[in-house]
Design goal:
It holds the Pfam family Helicase_C_2. It is an enzyme of class 3 (hydrolase). GO terms for molecular function: 4 iron, 4 sulfur cluster binding; ATP binding; DNA helicase activity; DNA/RNA helicase activity; hydrolase activity, acting on acid anhydrides, in phosphorus-containing anhydrides; nucleic acid binding. Its EC number is 3.6.4.12. With about 700 residues, this protein is α/β, with parallel strands linked by helices. It folds into 4 domains: about 200 residues, Rossmann fold, CATH 3.40.50.300; about 90 residues, no CATH class; about 170 residues, no CATH class; about 210 residues, P-loop containing nucleotide triphosphate hydrolases (Rossmann fold, 3-Layer(aba) Sandwich). Helices cover about 50% and strands about 15% of the residues. Helix 5 packs across helix 6, helix 13 packs antiparallel against helix 15 and helix 25 packs across helix 27. The protein starts with a helix and ends in a 6-residue tail after the last strand.
Length: about 700
C-alpha cells in the first residue's frame, strides 16, 4: 500500500469534515492519532494464504483528543482499501450506544463515501422466543420441579413477568434485548436468554423472527460492526463465529485497558458443588429424548448418577474440613462468603482424587452428550419433518448441558498444577440456613490467553484508551495484554489538549492518621472531607476504596452535608446520575459517592464535577484470590509483586479517578487525595508523577504549599 497516498487521502477526508460536519474543529492530537493508525495498519497483511503477522497500534489518547473520530476515519479508509470490514469493540454499553446513536450517524452523514453500520451483541443478550413462550405459558415449569420451594415459587411468580415481557415484545415496546430491561424482569433473564447449547439454529420454528439471527444477518451486511470485548474473545475461538475473522476485518478495541480482565473472565470457570438437581434434570431430559427419538440406550451418558454422588461426597468433605471456620465466620455476621484459597494452587491428595474422578465421569458424560446432540441435529437435517420432535428436546437439554460443561472446565483448571497453576478457591455461602459451596479457578495472568486467542488470529488492530500507561510507561499493559512479544506492536501517547496546570489542582493531604490504620484514618478523613464538601458549590465526586470505607465516611458526614450525598447502591447508577444533574441544574450542591465503577467512565463535564475527593490511594482489594495467587507466585520466584503488579495497577486506577475532574477545555476542578503516602513514599511519588500535569499541592495543617514530585 502506498503510504503517502494513504496519508494524503486521510488528510483530505479529515480537513474536509470542517465543511460537512457542524462544530468540527481539527485537533492536533486527533490528527496525530489518525496518522499513527494508518502508519501501523498500512503494513498489515490480510491475505489468508499467509500466516498472521499482526500489526497492532497501542494508543493512549488523553481526554479531549477525540479518539473515536480518529480511529473511525483511519479504520474506514484502510478497510475500504483492503476490502475488509471495520470492527469496533468496546467494554461498556454506554460507549456502544454512543457509537451507534451519535458518532457513526454523524460521520456517515458527513462522509463523501457511504457506509453502513450495525451492532451485534452476544447471543445471551437476546431473548429466545421459544423459551419466552414456554415460560410465559407455564410449559417450562417442570424444569423446576426438583428445586426447593423457594425456587418453585419464584418460577411461578416469574410467569407473570414473562407474560408481560411477551406482550411488550409483540407490541414493539421492548426490543427483546437484556440491556433494555431492569428490575424484576432481569432476575429471570437466565431462563429466557438465547444460548448456544439450546439453540436449534435454522431448524427452529422461530428462526425467521429470531432476534439474534436477525441482528447477525444485519451485521453480516454492514461495513462497520460495533461489538464488545466479551463477544470478540468468545467468537474468535469459535468455528461458527458471528464476527468476521482476522483476515476479514480491522479490529479496534476502544476502552482497551479492559481486555486483560475480560480475557481472565473467559479463562476462569466455576461450579456449584452443593447443587446437583441439574444433573437429575439432565438425566430425565435425555431419557425422554432417547425414548421418543429411538436413540440407542448404549449411546446414552450413564455417569450422571455417579456424578451426583461424587459431587455430594466432595461437598461433604469440604464442609467437614472447614466446619469450625465456617461457624466462626457465620457468628461474625458477615454477608460475604467465606473463602478458602489453595496456596500455590496445590491440591491435597484427597482433593486431587476427587477432582480426577469428577473430571473422568463428567468428561465421559459430556462426550456422549455431544454425540447424542450431533445425532439429533443430523436427524433433524436428514428428516425435516422431525424438527417438531427434536427441537423441544434440544431446548430442554441445553441449560443442563451448560452446567456439565462448567463442571468439566472447572475440574480441568483444578487439576492444573503446572509451572503457573491457576488461582483455586472455594466460596462457602450461607443462604437461608443452607451452605452453598462453589469451586472456582482462574488463570493468574491474561497475557498468554490473549496472545493465543486474540492476537495470533488478527492481522491489523488498534487498542486505545485514555489510560493504558502505568507510571508513565506502556510496559505493564503490554505485558498484561500479551503484546509484549508481538513484534508488530507500536505504542503512542497522544497528549490531551487540556491545560491541566491551569485547569486543575491536585492536593495531597498529610493526614495525621496513617491509612494503614483504617478506623483512625476514616475518622480523620470524615472530618476533613466534610470540611471540603462545605466548599462545594455545585457537583462533586467522592470515590472510596471499599464498601467499609464508604459506609464509614457517609455515616461520619454531618446532616447538612449528608443530605446532599447520592450514594452508590441507594438507587441505580442511571437514577443517581439523573438526580445529580437535576440538583446541579437547580443550583444545589450534589455529591456522588461510589467505588471503582464511579471512578471510570463517568462523563461529568462543567459544574457537574468540580471536586473529586479520594480518601485513599485506590489499591485493589488485596484479598482478591487471583491477586493473592499472583503475588504468591511472583514472590516464590524471588520477584517483588508490589513493584511489578500493585503499584502499576494502582497507577492506572488513580489516573482513571483523576480523569473524572477535567472533561473539557472549559472545566475547572480540584482533586484531593487524603493519603500522605503520595508525598512521603517512593511508590507514592511514582504515582504522583504518572498523573496529568495538574498544579500539585501539599496540604499540611490547613496550609497548602507547592508539592515537588521528587520529594514531600
Amino acid at each position: 500500500m502506498d503510504k503517502q497516498a494513504l496519508h494524503d487521502a486521510l488528510d483530505a477526508q479529515y480537513f474536509g469534515l470542517a465543511d460537512r460536519l457542524d462544530g468540527f474543529q481539527p485537533r492536533e492530537g486527533q490528527l496525530q492519532m489518525l496518522h499513527a493508525i494508518a502508519e501501523t495498519l498500512a503494513d498489515a497483511d490480510f491475505d489468508p494464504a499467509n500466516p498472521p503477522q499482526p500489526k497492532v497500534a497501542v494508543i493512549e489518547a488523553g481526554t479531549g483528543v477525540g479518539k473515536t473520530r480518529a480511529y473511525l476515519l483511519a479504520g474506514l479508509q484502510l478497510a475500504r482499501a483492503r476490502k475488509v470490514k471495520l470492527l469496533i469493540s468496546t467494554a461498556t454499553i454506554a460507549l456502544q450506544e454512543q457509537l451507534m446513536h451519535k458518532d457513526l450517524p454523524e460521520l456517515a452523514k458527513a462522509s463523501t463515501e457511504p457506509f453502513s453500520y450495525a451492532m451485534l451483541k452476544g447471543r445471551g443478550r437476546y431473548v429466545c422466543l421459544l423459551k419466552l413462550e414456554a415460560h410465559a405459558s407455564g410449559q417450562a415449569q417442570e424444569e423446576f420441579d426438583l428445586g426447593d420451594a423457594a425456587q418453585q415459587g419464584a418460577a411461578e411468580a416469574d410467569a407473570a413477568v414473562f407474560q408481560k415481557l411477551q406482550r411488550k415484545l409483540q407490541s414493539g415496546a421492548w426490543d427483546g434485548e437484556r440491556d433494555s430491561l431492569d428490575g424484576e424482569a432481569l432476575q429471570g433473564w437466565g431462563r429466557i436468554a438465547a444460548d448456544r447449547h439450546a439453540c436449534t439454529g435454522p431448524a427452529c420454528e422461530q428462526y425467521q423472527d429470531c432476534l439474534y439471527y436477525g441482528a447477525k444477518r444485519v451485521a453480516a451486511a454492514a461495513d462497520v460492526l460495533v461489538a464488545n470485548h466479551d463477544l470478540v474473545l468468545a467468537s474468535l475461538r469459535s468455528d461458527k463465529s458471528a464476527l468476521p475473522s482476522g483476515e476479514r476485518a480491522i479490529y479496534v478495541f476502544d476502552e482497551g485497558h479492559h481486555l486483560p480482565a475480560t480475557a481472565l473472565s473467559h479463562g476462569a470457570s466455576e461450579t456449584v458443588l452443593t447443587s446437583t438437581a441439574w444433573a437429575t434434570r439432565l438425566e430425565r431430559a435425555l431419557a425422554a429424548a432417547a425414548a421418543e427419538l429411538d436413540y440407542p440406550a448404549e449411546g446414552m451418558p450413564d455417569g450422571l448418577g455417579p456424578l451426583r454422588e461424587k459431587l455430594g461426597q466432595l461437598a461433604r468433605a469440604l464442609l467437614d474440613a472447614h466446619s469450625e471456620k465456617l461457624q466462626v465466620h457465620a457468628a461474625g455476621g458477615s454477608s460475604e462468603p467465606m473463602r478458602v484459597r489453595l496456596p500455590q494452587g496445590k491440591l491435597s491428595e484427597e482433593l486431587r482424587d476427587f477432582w480426577e474422578e469428577l473430571h473422568q465421569i463428567a468428561a465421559g458424560c459430556e462426550s456422549k452428550l455431544a454425540d447424542f446432540s450431533t445425532w439429533m441435529r443430523r436427524k433433524r437435517s436428514d428428516e425435516p419433518d422431525s424438527a417438531a420432535e427434536v427441537n423441544p428436546h434440544l431446548l430442554a437439554i441445553g441449560p443442563q448441558a451448560r452446567r456439565l460443561t462448567e463442571l468439566v472446565e472447572t475440574a480441568e483448571l483444578m487439576l492444573d498444577e503446572g509451572a503457573m497453576p491457576p488461582a483455586k478457591w472455594f466460596d462457602f455461602r450461607a443462604e437461608g440456613g443452607v451452605v452453598q459451596l462453589e469451586a472456582k479457578a482462574c488463570p493468574l495472568f491474561a497475557g498468554a490467553l490473549l496472545q493465543r486467542n486474540l492476537w495470533s488470529r488478527l492481522r491489523g488492530a488498534v487498542v486505545t484508551s485514555a489510560t493504558l500507561r502505568a507510571l508513565g510507561k506502556f510496559d505493564f499493559f503490554l505485558r498484561d495484554a500479551g503484546l509484549e512479544y508481538v513484534e508488530g506492536t507500536r505504542t503512542l501517547e497522544v497528549q490531551s489538549p487540556f491545560d491541566y496546570g491551569r485547569q486543575g489542582r491536585f492536593i495531597v493531604v498529610a493526614t495525621q492518621a496513617s491509612p494503614k490504620d483504617p478506623a483512625a484514618h476514616n475518622r480523620e478523613c470524615g472530618r476533613l472531607i466534610a470540611s471540603d464538601l462545605r466548599e462545594v458549590q455545585h457537583g462533586a465526586l467522592l470515590l472510596c476504596s471499599s464498601w467499609v470505607q464508604l459506609r464509614a465516611l457517609v455515616d461520619a458526614m454531618p446532616p447538612e452535608v449528608r443530605n446532599d450525598l447520592l450514594v452508590q447502591g441507594s438507587a441505580s447508577r442511571e437514577q443517581l446520575l439523573r438526580r445529580h444533574r437535576e440538583a446541579v441544574a437547580r443550583g444545589q450542591r450534589s455529591v456522588l459517592v461510589g467505588l471503582q465503577s464511579f471512578g471510570e467512565g463517568l462523563d461529568l463535564p462543567g459544574t457537574l464535577c468540580e471536586w473529586v475527593l479520594m480518601p485513599k490511594v485506590p489499591f485493589a482489594n488485596p484479598s482478591d484470590p487471583v491477586s493473592e495467587a499472583r503475588s504468591e507466585w511472583l514472590e516464590a520466584k524471588g520477584r517483588n509483586s508490589f513493584v511489578e503488579l500493585t503499584v502499576p495497577a494502582t497507577g492506572v486506577r488513580l489516573n482513571q479517578w483523576a480523569g473524572r475532574g477535567i472533561r473539557s477545555e472549559a472545566d475547572r476542578a480540584t482533586l484531593v487525595c487524603y493519603d500522605p503516602r503520595l508525598a512521603s513514599t517512593p511508590f507514592g511519588r511514582q504515582l504522583l508523577a504518572g498523573l496529568p500535569p495538574f498544579s500539585k499541592l501539599l496540604r499540611r495543617g490547613g496550609k497548602e504549599t507547592a508539592l515537588e514530585e521528587g520529594g514531600g
